[in-house]
Amino acid sequence: MRSDQGERVYDSSRRRAQASRNREAILDIARAEFFANGYASTTMASIAKASGFSVDTVHKAFGGKAGLVRALYERGLGGAGPVPAWVRSDDMQEHERDPHAIVRSWGELSSEVAPLVVPILLLIRDAAASDPEMALLLRQSEDERRERMRRNAHTLADAGHLRSGVALDEAADVLWAYSAPETYERLVLRCGWDASRYGRFVGDALAAALLRPPC
Predict the structure, then answer these.
(1) Which of 63, 83, 104 is the last residue of a domain?
(2) Cβ–Cβ under 8 Å, residues 153 and 176
(3) Is 29 part of a structural domain of the chain?
(4) Which of 45, 144, 170, 206 qualifies as a FRET site for 32, CA 20 to 30 Å off?
(5) Which of 209, 149, 159 is closest to 179 using CA atoms?
(6) Is the domain of 135 the same as that of 164?
(7) Residue 128 CB-density burial (10 A; 0-12 exposed, 13-18 middle, 19+ buried)
(8) 92 located within any domain
């Protein structure tokens, strides 16, 4: 492609699209390798071999095993839709005025995101016992989730939706507890609930614990 002055202009859109597809392919393979073999036993070489890319390419894209796990975690947080889950949550909170609709939406988003991100968090939790990078990632993920839940609590508190006697800090604690990966682990992975039932439970539990009774 050339500009109006006759100079060649490089169109990188196709290259960016291919790089994105390659990245997703590597992440899919890495996820399968980690779940099949565990974090410690999975190597960058095994991921590279299974994905068909060189070890150097995988390193450059993700910076090592910890970087791959971080990328898997962040991809899971985005949910399954074309718009990241946290963007949809922020938009919903900005425009929704019904507090019960807000917490129901949080439950629905939980049912979408948890199946993607909780298995990664459990992998991180298990690896953290012996790997400093995974221990750091576990702390960071908990800090990020707690900060997110505090912002959600502010949404309810600032609009006057919290029931009498529930302070902002308590609301943040409740939101943090119900969004914990252990909640999904127990109800879905151990008790056999499906994701939709889990999402309804989270929404109903948050409404009962935090919101003023309907008039």
Answers:
(1) 63
(2) no
(3) yes
(4) 144
(5) 149
(6) yes
(7) middle
(8) yes
